[in-house]
Design brief:
Blueprint lengths: L8 E3 L12 E3 L3 E3 L2 E3 L2
Organism: Paenibacillus sabuli
Protein name: NUDIX hydrolase
GO molecular function, one term: hydrolase activity
Length: about 40
């Protein structure tokens, strides 16, 4: 199978009623927005 020519990914900005931003602490890149790539 050939590797894909492009990668489809998505991320989200999530803010609650207190204007707090949701961030995820990843093991490699530190704090970031929640998201991922489509397989």
């Amino acid at each position: 199978m050939n590797p894909p020519k492009h990668i489809v990914s998505a991320a989200a900005i999530v803010v609650n009623e207190k204007d707090e931003l949701l961030l995820i602490k990843g093991p490699k890149r530190g704090w970031e927005m929640p998201g991922g790539q489509v397989e």
